[in-house]
Amino acid sequence: MTLTRFVTKNAFRNKRRTILTVISISVSLLLLTLMMTVWRAFYIDKGAPESVLRLITRHKVSLTNMMPLAYESKIRAVPGVVAVASMNWFGGKYKDEKPENFFAQFYVEPENIVQVYSDWQIPPDQKEAWFKDRAGCAVGRQLADRMHFKVGDKIRLIGSYIGGNVDLTVRAIIDGPEVNDALWFNRKYLDESVNWVGSKSGMFSMRVDSQENVPTVSRAIDEMFRNSPDPTKTETEKGFQLGFIAMMGNVKAFILGISGAVVFAILLVSGNTMAMSIRERIREVAVLKTVGFTRNGVLTLFVIEAVVVSLIGGVLGVLLGKFMIYGIAQNPMGGMFRTAQVDWKVALVALAVAALVGFMSAFLPSYRAAKLNIADGLRHLG
Amino acid sequence: MAIPLIYNIRNLRVRAGATVMTALGVALTVAIAIFIMMLLSGLDSAFHNTGNPLNVMALRKGSDSELTSFMSNDTFLALKTLPGLAKGKDGQPLVSGEMVVAVVLPRNNGTGETNVVVRGISSVAREMRPEIKVVEGRWFNEGQHEIVVSRSVSRRFAKTNIGDSVSFGKSPWTVVGIFDASGTAYDSEIWGDINQMKTDFDRPGYSSAVLRATDDVAADALTKRLPDDQRIKLDGTLETEYYAKQTRSGMFIQFIGTIVAIIMAVGSSFAAMNTMYAAVAYRGREIATLRVMGFNRPSILLSFVFESLLLSLLGGAVAVVLMLPFNGLTTGTNNMMTFSEVVFHMRMTPVIVATALLFSAFMGLIGGLAPAWHASRQNILNALRD
Q: pTM value?
């Protein structure tokens, strides 16, 4: 009998117990995988290659304050800036207040915004139609898929803080490397009805020529407006998004707390099972030692067995997690997780946790069992 | 005949190691559920405590938050002429014109910065909200660049103590006092003189107005009248309803929390099942003896389900005790309606304790039924021979 066979035979001698243990370990690891994926999506992913070159400038006081539109040409003059576009949150409602009908709407100058988002792919005829039609709009691919918008569709947005409804025609669909779940329309449409739209801007989005220039440019912009009545804050696109996550509260502590609880919980489950199964086998340990297994040999057998069981749970958990994240990503309500996936690094960490838990849970009980005197072990009643 | 409960308690004690580990596993799951419930209940109470049922809030049509609302000075003056308004100490109608802006402040603990609501008010606003009390320093002087901050804001944000100056608008504002709003939504705000703020933010009007009605009927009439009055044309909602609607800021926490709790509950149920199966296997002979003594199958089943329930309830109780220190803890999240931080206190309520215990009992039941069923089905002769 080989070592592998011995271990597998033993691991599954009590099938029910092993299966129950594997299931509880796998759901815990599923949760851990989900948490790590969320963490990755929030804090580690850098986004598309061009995203690191984009900066967003907003009013220093808050997003709800506006800056003079004249900043645009001043920002354009900053060395390193390739393109600038004014970008504004419209915040209208589509149909009703249901969360599934919510999507972001921005009013922009189409000619400028495509310069900043140069990684957008729009068919030339659609692009031209969008530029030409003052009441036209472009929708991101993900939004178009989710709401079934097609070129030529009419969309009515019910205005909230800007007031007045907006009737738009879809002229273009935007494809790009990043999730685009937003609608983009021409600010000229609002110029006529809302008097301040032509002189104020909520955000400026810009593209910088190289990554080395990113910090310099953002500092130069904020410095330029520091003593004006409307000081600015310029940060990278990713930094800007992180700001939104930070507003939800202490998300990091929340994720870490849950992950910690999960790891501790699997440790308990797995430790409990191993302790039970080793207690049953004290007499066998004595027999193994009688036939010549050393103390360390016995210890290794048990530890490998535990690690195998928790690794099976780990693999199942990661697969389940992958499956679930895939489901969320396909779901139109997936929001910022639309591009999330369980990559091999996350999977590796989860499996490492599983292996470590298996090792730790088996070590103490098997150490005790292995140390036992042979005569006592043989006499043990179990 | 039922098997005495003490039998199960003793059994749990005999296998103390397994009991503690399983109970702790259940406790962790329940603790997470409790934590989420405490967050939601705190958030809920902050919004449900806010507002007077006689107060009517006037906002621009279509605005669902004060932050995106605006009204001109003329509209505001017209509000004061409406019938059914209560009168203040000075004989003037109790109508408070307010301005609300969001200002970015850095958090105290270095976890970044977030928006805080700044409210510009006149003296009548204070008369209408008697729950607000100065606990340190003094109230701001009208005509001065001074602000008062709530105790929660002062604790959570950097440089918001008495004597500090906070920069927003055109020039810095001096913090002169700290107030307490008795757990209402105002506990997340900064207050200052409205006229100073109007000039600083170049706003020739108000964000919102709060009108005090003489009674419920008048309040109801006011909400109906506001949109129809040609001089006014504003939306009217009861202040209590306005704040109750903001509770949906907790939707995200609720969503994530529910998923996490369900997944962990599945894991814990299986763990409990494992422990109970082990208990059954270990006590085969004992169970057979009980049967021989005359206890029938249902009572064996009941006894083991009971033991599983005891085990998980122990876990539930541990979780409640574990989470007690979090009671009253101040925390904050983003208010989806105002885009700003809402500060609230986590609360352990009797309902939460009951739900937590029910939740743990449910896990025990799920985990215990199958093993108990097996225990009751065992063949007496075989078991005794083992």
A: 0.80
